[in-house]
């Protein structure tokens, strides 16, 4: 290791990988989660992958998040941009500390939104992403070079939080940068279903075999 892992800029958990064919997973929890929240999910959908799971630094009613929001569905974009930059810096620190390749983000809800912001604002930070119930994070996003970057988006047809149009707009924004986006709308609400696990696992297995 080339850095002091005790002094990285986010509280986090790291699980070393056992399968060198798999990209590391960057696990990004939803509102109220923490660095432990998605470890079991990561192990399930990407067996043997290294897992890097930071805790969001923003508190909303005592619940960790990755960036502030004004109200549900309305983001504080200045804070979002600042927090995305902090997270990109953490990824670089952790890669040096743990000897990791660029990770694939696996984010749920608020974690999916910060992952989408990373793709749009700091595309070098990620090798791809699985976005579970994401929203478009920026009103006027840049158009980064995402050529060939694999992205799986899984939305819920009965999601009361994420409008169908909003998720479709994010898929279009990522495709405009050249990302290879697969967007599935599942018969689900905002919570995760067995179909999410199955599709995410198959997507990550294909990346490992590519």
TrEMBL record:
Tree of life domain: Bacteria
Domain Phospholipase/carboxylesterase/thioesterase residues, every copy: 15-205
GO terms of molecular function: hydrolase activity
Keywords: Hydrolase
InterPro entries found in the cross-reference section: AB_hydrolase_fold (IPR029058), PLipase/COase/thioEstase (IPR003140)
Protein name in UniProt: Alpha/beta hydrolase
The species this protein was found in: Ancylobacter crimeensis
């Amino acid at each position: 290791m080339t850095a002091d892992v005790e002094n990285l800029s986010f509280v986090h958990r790291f699980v070393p990988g056992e399968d060198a064919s798999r990209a590391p997973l960057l696990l990004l929890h939803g509102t109220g989660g923490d660095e432990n929240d998605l470890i079991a999910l990561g192990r399930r959908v990407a067996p043997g992958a290294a897992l890097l799971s930071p805790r969001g630094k923003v508190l909303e009613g005592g619940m960790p998040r990755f960036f502030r929001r004004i109200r549900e569905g309305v983001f504080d974009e200045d804070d979002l941009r600042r927090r995305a930059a902090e997270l990109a810096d953490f990824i670089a620190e952790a890669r040096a500390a743990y000897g990791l390749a660029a990770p694939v983000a696996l984010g749920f809800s608020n974690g999916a939104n910060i992952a989408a912001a990373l793709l749009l604002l700091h595309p070098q930070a990620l090798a791809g992403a699985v976005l579970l119930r994401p929203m478009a994070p920026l009103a006027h996003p840049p158009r980064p070079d995402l050529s060939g970057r694999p992205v799986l988006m899984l939305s819920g047809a009965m999601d009361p939080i994420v409008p169908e149009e909003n998720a479709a707009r994010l898929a279009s924004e990522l495709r405009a940068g050249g990302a290879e986006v697969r967007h599935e709308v599942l018969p689900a609400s905002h919570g995760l279903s067995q179909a999410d696990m199955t599709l995410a696992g198959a997507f990550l297995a294909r990346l490992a075999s590519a």
